[in-house]
């Protein structure tokens, strides 16, 4: 990865535990004409004083309580992979268990981190990932699924009903591992506006192991995390801050309408190392962000919008917590050898 600042702005709707395994099922609605309930509206939160933190270090947001921690994510991923590996072995296939995959940053930190840019970081790295960040990215990618033969893939995903005279579990070895880890985790009740008639169905022609993204316990908090970010981004106070930031940038000859726009500039990914123009742009950007307190404002707005969302969906989020606890409990048993395969 050449540039990393855009990675936290739009997160996938699957939980980190599933992303680590590399076999996801982000299914789509089947195209039903059934109308959905109207999306709720949230009043802009009151902010009396805009904070001015210099980085995302030490910052948190309320929704963080409804995600697995990075350590828990690795625990769940490793246990699930162990179950998958054991299942695959019964059919004569090898499936490696990765012990270290998974990001060191929570989904909340991934959202907050790109909002802040220090002059020192900008002067050294521009918009490129630091050495530390590259290590985090590499670790997060370390748990992707291995390349398998067609026969092994069929057993993994459940496309094959049997192999070598043995019946393949419904949904394959992947579903066997996933469902074992999620045993006892109640299905999260999604808000009506997020759910259509076909939302619980996998995409047409999908392997039996696949399911709708909405079936994942992390779907609701991840959707709310993304939603709160979008609400903060479109808040009139952010628009005002963007205007001040844009005017500041223009004084140095840079024409960008918003911080979001500069983070999405594709030129930063054009090379493996930051160019002199990139560094100059980033340094000016860092100074202008501090001037308008951009990171602190976006943080405060997300804080307010998330609190409103949590109040509205407290019951469903408590189900998410219970599901997370069940997964961690099951995974811990698997890793300690106290769970039956």
From TrEMBL:
Ranges of compositional bias, category Low complexity: 40-53
Ranges where the record places region Disordered: 30-56, 191-212
Signal peptide extent: 1-25
Keywords: Signal
Protein name as catalogued: Lipoprotein
